[in-house]
Amino acid sequence: MKKRLAVIMIALVSILFCISPAMAKTLTIGTMSPLTGPYAADGNDIANGAKTAVAIIEAEGGIPGYDKIEVVSQDTACDPRQAVAAANKLVNLGVVGVVGAYCSSSTIPASEVLNEEDIPMITPASTNEKVTERGLPYMFRVCGRDDDQSIAAGKFIKNYLKAKTVYIVDDKTTYSQGLAENVAKQCEKLGVSVVSHDHVNQGDKDFSAVLTKIKRANPDMLYMSLQNSSSGSLMAIQAKRFGLKCAILAQDAVYHPQFINIAKEAAQGVYFTFGYVDKTKPSYQKYYEKYKALFGEPGAYSAYAYDSAYVLLTAIKQAKSTDPAKIKAEIMGMNIQGASKPIKFFENGDSTANYIIQVVKGEEFVPFWNPETGTLY
Amino acid sequence: MIPGSKHIWKKYAIAMIWLLVLLWPLLGIHADGTLTFSETWSVWIWIAGVLLGLLMLVLAHRSSTSRMVRAPVAIAMEKINRLGKVMPGKVWMVLIISVSLLFPFLTDRYAQDVAINVLVYVCLGLGLNIVVGLAGMLDLGYIAFYGVGAYTYALLSIHYQFSFWLSLPIAACFAAIAGCIIGYPTLRMRGDYLAIVTLGFGEIVRIILNNWMELTNGPNGILGINAPGLMLPQFSNGIGFEYIYLKKLHYLYYIVLLLCVFTVIAVHRLNFSRIGRAWEAIREDETVAELMGVNIFRLKLLAYAMGAVFGGLAGAFFAARMRFVSPESFTFIESAMVLAMVVLGGMGSIPGIILGAMALIVLPELFREVELYRMLAFGAAMTVMMLFRPKGLIPAKRVGTRSEEREG
Amino acid sequence: MEFFIQQTINGLTLGGIYALIALGYTMVYGIIQLINFAHGEFFAAGGYLGVILLSFLVSRGYLETHPWLCLGGSLVLAMAYCAALAMAVEKVAYKPLRFASRLSVLLSALGMSIFLQNGLMLTQGVYDKPYPSIFSHGNIEFGNITVSYLQIIILVATVSLLVLLNILVFKTRIGKAMRATAQDKVMTSLLGISSNRIISITFAIGAALAAAAGIMVGLYYGSVRYDMGFVPGIKAFAAAVLGGIGNITGAMLGGLIIGMVEIYGAGYISGQYKDVFAFIILIGVLYFRPTGIMGENIDDTRI
């Protein structure tokens, strides 16, 4: 038995040897996102968004000095262990930059690996403040942070809805809970009373217990802070069924065509905090048409992932080099209009935000209220 | 054509028609009111072709046509076997040890990372083996101990700056206590009742980790855990000692290798001790074991505690290696994965479990090449391996055949 | 008081859904003592078949004209599909392991579960699929209490399936054969009953029940998702065990208890710990009754 074990072990080890970096005259960038498991929908949006950016850059003439840009999409399954393995795999493949990951708990350990090798990482989805606050030189974030979004939400609740009582529900993920806490803080500051801050678990389908509680509390507004459109549409449908009359405010993670598609009538009139997207702008049009042609309707994270990859590739193009320091210099100096928002990075790697309130009207999201000016669109 | 092959073809045909029936509604009926067949056909022909090829191989294997191919292979195998006999077991051991020692010098960081994962899961698998393989209690919540170990070190490290080495025994202790807490109410249960209760405990631990904000920082996880450190002599300005954190992958590899060797030796010794025999007696027949004077209560608790100790050690290492822990690492599917390693490798067999851990960690990594199909391939591989080696890749020698063994 | 009644109705509905899945689960368990991890996937497949067929019918315009006929037809077809799927899975992954250790079968089932879930994801896409909303309309209101027709349908279906299954198992010849097979496979085959066929049939019935549950859940929640089977699969397992595995009435009871505990826990104590309450009740009950509420004393089972 020992002999056979040894033979098989040696075989497996030699397989590991064989997984060696592929060398070619192509520029390789990596994406990391959960392509399998419960977050696969968002994970695929991210991978597709990055691929769209590559397709557009290639159509615009590519990057001088390279024949081809290749995207390697790695699955993290939202598991820190697999995320680290994926990051190491990307290091092996010699990627010049990485777009990802989705779960903050994957992004944090993976970024440590990538930063050891000075590989820039731009996350389109991880909102944990620790992502950028560890002083890693090559960590950037394109999605907004919770604080920006909660300020917009707070202004809307206070100034437009004039709500006196707010009920907050989150689904216990880094993102949803962090955002919910920030919104609660904002409400307190603005003198709006938070009736209750309740939690459900990510992946729950049945929200009847908490919705019955909300109905009894009868707040002026429900702030539902959820991880994705799937949970959001389930909650909207059930809220409608229970006859909840209050306004509902959701946020960018729930913002997805799928939300309207599934919740249908229940989606009507639900408010969202989301970046202001001028759909007439060429930067958005360019992205939207390409994405639609390649993968269908884009999701919330698609645009962020597209912007992340676009920023990365543009930086490489402008730097005329894949030297990390030069890429970083270009990224820091960047001031462009992306598909999701105008992009400019701060010293710590975070980027600007321009949250507004959108509302579901018919089959689409329309801009509704501008928190900067306090006016309707 | 050999006799009986007609029967096989008929079965193959029925199976393929069945597959077509199952495949078409998923691929061919569309929400826009159209019915298509082309995708179904292309997928179906692909699968049918592959299966046909496999079937031919099996048939060829059975008939004599493949003798030409098989004869040289058999001769080669014979030679290898003879070589194996000439070289005693010790030589193989030396070979394995030297390969594992030299591994980081020969490989890149991805391979090292995968190797570290394998070794961590070997520890976990061996720990679970005590509960499932030796004592015969089905545990579907084993990952909870891994979580307890990981969070113990994480908290000790960020709050009290405990060193990794000091935290190891503490993590093991906490895990053992958790093991006893979980073990106690389940002592009277058997089989699947035990399975669901342990599953429940595993989930409870995960939910608490996710919700107890003050202690565990909830879903945000704990950041800033120290890597294992070592006092190393310093010669640059005079002779002195300096405390160095071992963050590099190959250091971590050696640490986990050490941990793994310790686990292997400990589990081996336990297996062949009085306690190990008592556990096996409980597994084979609880009632008889009790009758023969085995203290079921104490030994079952001990099995849980010992299993938990190794889970806790692996967990502490995991925290030190990632320098970050969050509840997402301790889901039910991880428990199932560890159980899969134990069963796939061969319950109660140490080399089997090492092989099982290798297979289940390396396979998904190999399937990375097929991106979206990764877990599909993995699920299929798991079932297929089980079908071909129902007793595990390297079954333990001592399952229910101990009297024969004595005779032999 | 209204709050309590509303939460009770919520609990009954959720419990009814768990019970529906647990019924099929416990049938399969009763006959071959297999923790069938793939059962949740049959449930998901049923939900998907329902959405595929109903969306097809919507776009052809049939659903507008004959809604109930379409729903009935889709239900039957989805049940048939899942029965066929379950029989295939049984033949491929479980039958060759009939005389192997039970843990080997468990793992084979786990592999199948991963395979089927990812198969659904690859063929049907990663996004949720919406159910046509024409059935989800309609509430009955008593003051502040809302009961939707679908909640009533779920409860009625659960109870009637329970009665039907009890009749099937205790009053028909095939039920007798099932019970005999569950008791002693070898002896049953000696008496001229093909135990393989009986096991196949049991799988088919169990999966058909899961498919019905899948469609009902899809209608109630408005959408299906490729990984929808996993958590309910575990809950159904818990429900079946709580009631005493293999006992049909017990599974129903177990499902209802777990659903109620979750809802009361979320409604009165804390939403994020509701699964903890469910599992604590489960552990508590099993501590005092190690074979479940209605379970008989099993013999020495070993894994």
Name the beta content range of chain A: 15-25%
Largest beta sheet: strand ordering of chain A: 7-6-8-9-10-13-14-15
Helix/strand-derived class of chain A? alpha/beta
Specify which chain pair forms the largest interface. Answer: B-C, 62 and 66 residues
Main sheet record of chain A = 8 strands, mixed
Structural class of chain C: mainly alpha
Helix count from the secondary structure assignment of chain A = 12
Query: How does CATH name the architecture of the largest domain in chain A?
Result: 3-Layer(aba) Sandwich
Features:
heterotrimer, A: 377 residues, alpha/beta, Rossmann fold, 2 domains, eight-stranded mixed β-sheet, five-stranded parallel β-sheet, globular, C: mainly alpha, two-stranded antiparallel sheet, 12 helices, 75% helix
Can you put this structure into words, describing what you see?
The complex is a heterotrimer of chains A (377), B (408) and C (303). Chain A has helices spanning 2-18, 40-59, 80-93, 104-116, 146-160, 174-190, 208-217, 229-241, 257-263, 282-295, 300-319, 324-332; strands spanning 26-33, 68-75, 98-100, 121-123, 139-141, 165-170, 193-199, 221-225, 247-250, 271-275, 335-337, 342-344, 355-361, 364-370, 375-376. Chain A is of the alpha/beta class. Chain A has 2 domains: 19-144 and 280-344, Rossmann fold (3-Layer(aba) Sandwich), CATH 3.40.50.2300; 146-277 and 355-376, Rossmann fold. By secondary structure, chain B is mainly alpha-helical. Chain B folds into 2 domains: 5-85, no CATH class; 118-407, ABC transporter involved in vitamin B12 uptake, BtuC (Orthogonal Bundle). Chain B has helices spanning 5-28, 38-62, 67-86, 89-106, 109-134, 143-160, 164-183, 191-211, 213-216, 249-271, 274-284, 286-291, 296-322, 332-345, 350-366, 374-388, 402-407; strands at 222-223, 229-234, 240-245, 324-325. In chain B, a hairpin with a 5-residue loop joins strand 2 and strand 3. The model of chain B is unreliable at 401-408 (pLDDT under 50). Chain C is mostly helical and 303 residues long. Chain C has one domain (15-230). Chain C is built from 12 helices and 4 strands; from the N terminus they run H-H-H-H-H-E-E-E-H-H-H-H-E-H-H-H. In chain C, helix 1 packs antiparallel against helix 9 (195-221), helix 2 packs across helix 9 and helix 6 (149-171) runs antiparallel to helix 9 (195-221). Chain C is globular, with a radius of gyration of 19 Å. The N and C termini of chain C lie far apart (47 Å). At the A-B interface, helix 1, strand 2, helix 3, helix 4 and helix 6 of A face helix 3, helix 4, helix 5, helix 8 and strand 4 of B.
